[in-house]
Design a protein that fits this description.
two-stranded antiparallel ribbon, 2 helices, elongated, 77 residues, two-stranded antiparallel sheet
Length: 77
Amino acid sequence: EPTYKMKHKIILIFITLLCASCAGYRVTKFTAASVKLGNRKELLIKKFGQPFKISLQKDRDFIYYKEVVDISCYPFI
């Protein structure tokens, strides 16, 4: 019969593998480039192309981009 320590190690390994299988580091054109709040809209459009959506809220332009990623349940980020 497995000891308490052995059961503890098996559970710990299982949880670690479960968490590691869900995690992933994705590099996109937005994480690889420096984008800061307050950048001029024209600069961002020149750098990244036409956005998916532009909205005006409280006298500020919000620019939305989406990018295809390889996560099965999330086709865009």
